[in-house]
């Protein structure tokens, strides 16, 4: 049996260290981490690797259920996939595991709460943006890509896939920047 930890934060400027430390203390011999939204499983390569790596008797451990996902269906699918591989999932806070039937019920409810919390966050964010726009203080979100570099690489003959790989982003982001310029 291997304890495999998974740590996730939503943005690049957030810190994973607290989660990683807690997972180490709990005895995780392998810890995978990533900085990506938990709104869906899209773009979560490390999570996909963890699920693929699970073997019978393994334990996938996360510090909180919302680190695994903020969509109830995604969380339930992850639990199902782990069980199909003979593994189980343990959430540390609150301590719940899929080893027992009650753990399934609790994780389902917690998954629903995480999804509801995500909706509340998005709603508050939209309200805040609207207030900022109304007062003239809204300047848009922080740019995460170097648009000039994308354009330069494109003019140098590089394709979208090569640019995306070089900058660590998706081809769609590259296409969007090129279309806007």
UniProtKB/TrEMBL annotation:
Gene3D superfamilies for this protein: Homeodomain-like, Resolvase, N-terminal catalytic domain
Origin: domain of life: Bacteria
Active site (record annotation): 10
PANTHER family hit by this protein: DNA-INVERTASE FROM LAMBDOID PROPHAGE, RESOLVASE HOMOLOG YNEB
Family annotation (InterPro entries): Homeodomain-like_sf (IPR009057), Recombinase_CS (IPR006118), Resolv_N (IPR006119), Resolvase-like_N_sf (IPR036162), Resolvase_HTH_dom (IPR006120), SSR_resolvase (IPR050639)
This protein's UniProt keywords: DNA integration, DNA recombination, DNA-binding
Protein name: Recombinase family protein
Protein family per UniProt: Belongs to the site-specific recombinase resolvase family.
Residue span, Resolvase/invertase-type recombinase catalytic domain: 2-136
């Amino acid at each position: 049996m291997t304890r495999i930890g998974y740590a996730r934060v939503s943005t690049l400027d957030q810190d994973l260290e607290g989660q990683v430390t807690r997972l180490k203390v709990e005895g995780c011999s392998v810890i995978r981490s990533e900085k990506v939204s938990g709104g869906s499983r899209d773009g979560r390569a490390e999570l996909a690797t963890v699920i693929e790596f699970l073997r019978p008797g393994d334990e996938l451990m996360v510090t909180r259920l919302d680190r695994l996902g903020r969509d109830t269906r995604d969380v339930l699918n992850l639990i199902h996939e782990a069980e199909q591989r003979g593994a189980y999932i343990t959430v540390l806070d609150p301590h719940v595991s899929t080893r027992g039937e009650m753990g399934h019920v609790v994780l389902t409810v917690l998954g629903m709460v995480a999804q509801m919390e995500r909706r509340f966050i998005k709603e508050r964010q939209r309200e805040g943006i609207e207030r900022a726009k109304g007062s003239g203080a809204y300047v848009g979100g922080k740019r995460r890509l170097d648009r000039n570099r994308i354009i330069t690489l494109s003019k140098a003959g590089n394709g979208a896939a090569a640019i995306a790989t070089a900058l660590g982003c998706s081809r769609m982001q590259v296409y969007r920047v090129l279309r806007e310029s």
